[in-house]
Every structure is written in C-alpha cells, then in structure tokens.
C-alpha cells in the first residue's frame, strides 16, 4: 500500500484534514466542517487521559487571521511574558504563512476559558456553539537546519531586514509556538496536534525538516515524538537556555493507481 494510504489506514489523526494551501491563508472564511482529531485510533477505559480527551471531541484545522485574538490569549495563558509570541507576530505569521499553522479546537456552548470569548460560531446549525481554541502550532520556514533568532523575529517598517522571519524558499519548518491551554494539558492534545501537524507537512512535502527550540525539561517530550536533540541552541530569544530539536521528515510518495 502506498505510504499515504497505509498511514491513513493506521491512524485516524488526519481523517478528512485539509491540505496545506495558500488559498485559505489570511482570510476570514467560514470554517470548514470539523475534522476528528482522535489520536492513534485507540481508546481504553483504563486510560484516563484518553477518556478525558475523547470527551472533548477535539478537531484540528488550519488557523487564519480571524484566530489571532484567540492565539494571543492562548499564548498569554501558557508562556511567561518574555517567551510569548505577541499579537503583532501572530498577525505577521498567519498573514504570511498561515498554511503552516494548525489549531486544535473543541465545540462548546459556554466557556470560561481564556479563548472562549474570542471564539467564532462553529460550522453547524447551532449558532450558540463556539469553536474554542485549545491549542495551537504557529510556524514559519527557514533555510537553515535549526531555528535562529532571525527566524524568531519578523520584519517591521522600522527594520525591514529580509533575513528576519519567514523564508518561503526554506525547507525547514520552524515551530515557534506549540501550546495547549493549561486546563487541557496532560490529556494527549499536544501529542495529537503535533502528530497531525507533522503528518500534514509530510503529506504536502512542503519541508524536509521540522525544527524548534525547547527548554531542557521538554527534551524527552520531543524525543518521544521523533525529534533529535542537537544540543544547546545559539538562539537567545526570551533569555536563551534553549536546545535545538530537529526532526527529519519523510516526504510522501506520489500515489499511483
Ligand atoms: C508542552 C505541551 C505542549 C504538551 O502538551 P500536552 O497536551 O500537555 O501533552 P500530552 O498530554 O500530549 O503529552 C503527551 C506525552 O508526553 C508526555 N509528557 C508531557 N509533558 C512532558 C514533559 N515535560 N516531559 C516528558 N514527557 C512529557 C506525557 O506524559 C505523554 O506521554 P504518553 O504519550 O506516554 O502518555 C503543553 O504542556 C504546553 O502547552 N506547555 C506550555 C507551553 C510550552 O512549554 N510549550 C512548548 C514550547 S517548546
């Protein structure tokens, strides 16, 4: 079986997931119907995190400019001030390469979550139901193997240096923000989101590597998800102390009938 098909047969992660496309970048289009994000296709009564995660019915979809406010709130709830992606940076990233992003959502009627107020009506016949952002990945591309401070920055009218920010010709996806709302951490959502994201990047063959910088305590987390620790990073973003984590991607084979 071609690799794509066998992957889809083995995991539900990407069932029906939209591809990476410039066409839905930076638009306020009505959301596409939700895609189930159940991970690995297994549920066990003995597994409390999976049971809780399944109660949430999470689904993944590409972010757009209309998600900037929710992303900003999610970031404020999960990162210390010096490590947060600002509203302006989210705007830059979602405007220029929103197709490299992904959110994990749940459909709720009422929510006291930080992202509850900023959520949009869900694609359904029940307008009171909102698509509430529980976690996100926001990324750019770079021409190097690891994430640099220039990749973490973005060009502004005051400093329009083209070395800053997203490089469309790059073959490494820089994952800048992987974050899950604190109330929903430890339920497998981070793993589900990252696996779905990486599989989509591979299926679309838009990059050869995925890279991120992580603090030491999260090295085992990323290693379990297939990243390799390349040692201390030169990046000084947010005060430094990061490690370079890189995962080589497996571009998908063309499917022939
Ligand atoms: C890091 C983060 C994204 C993980 O998401 P999560 O949904 O809480 O994690 P998951 O529930 O998917 O964990 C998946 C697995 O990793 C393990 N894990 C979680 N945190 C871990 C850690 N710090 N170290 C090692 N393993 C860890 C879990 O035990 C689980 O293992 P299992 O698959 O064997 O059951 C989330 O905790 C978060 O948003 N933290 C704050 C922001 C942040 O630091 N982001 C990372 C920036 S580099």
Automatic annotation (TrEMBL):
User: Which GO molecular function entries does the Swiss-Prot or TrEMBL record give?
Assistant: aralkylamine N-acetyltransferase activity
Acyltransferase recorded as keyword: yes
Q: Give the UniProt keywords, A-Z.
A: Acyltransferase, Transferase
Domain N-acetyltransferase positions: 58-250
Q: Where is there biased composition of kind Polar residues?
A: 9-27
Entry-linked SUPFAM superfamilies: Acyl-CoA N-acyltransferases (Nat)
Q: Compositional bias of type Basic and acidic residues: which residue ranges?
A: 28-43
User: Pfam families under this entry?
Assistant: Acetyltransf_10
Annotated spans, Disordered: 1-54
| Gene Ontology CC terms, in alphabetical order | cytoplasm
Protein name, UniProt field: N-acetyltransferase domain-containing protein
């Amino acid at each position: 079986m071609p690799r794509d098909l066998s992957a889809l047969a083995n995991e539900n992660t990407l069932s029906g997931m939209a591809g990476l496309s410039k066409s839905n970048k930076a638009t306020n289009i009505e959301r596409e119907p939700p895609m189930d994000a159940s991970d690995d296709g297994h549920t066990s009564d003995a597994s409390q995190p999976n049971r809780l995660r399944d109660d949430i019915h999470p689904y993944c979809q590409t972010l757009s400019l209309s998600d900037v406010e929710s992303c900003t709130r999610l970031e404020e709830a999960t990162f210390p001030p010096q490590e947060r992606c600002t509203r302006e940076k989210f705007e830059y990233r979602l405007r220029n390469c929103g197709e490299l992003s992904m959110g994990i959502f749940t459909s709720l009627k009422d929510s006291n979550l930080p992202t509850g107020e900023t959520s949009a009506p869900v694609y359904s016949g029940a307008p009171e139901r909102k698509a509430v952002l529980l976690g996100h990945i926001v990324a750019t591309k770079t021409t190097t193997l690891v994430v640099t401070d220039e990749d973490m920055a973005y060009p502004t009218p005051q400093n329009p240096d083209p070395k800053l920010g997203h490089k469309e010709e790059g073959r490494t996806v820089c994952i800048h923000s992987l974050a899950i709302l604190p109330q929903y951490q430890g339920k497998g959502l981070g793993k589900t989101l990252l696996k779905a994201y990486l599989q989509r990047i591979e299926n679309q063959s838009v990059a050869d590597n995925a890279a991120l910088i992580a603090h030491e305590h999260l090295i085992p987390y990323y290693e379990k998800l297939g990243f390799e620790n390349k040692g201390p990073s030169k990046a000084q973003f947010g005060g430094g102390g990061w490690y370079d984590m890189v995962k080589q991607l497996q571009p998908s084979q063309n499917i022939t009938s």
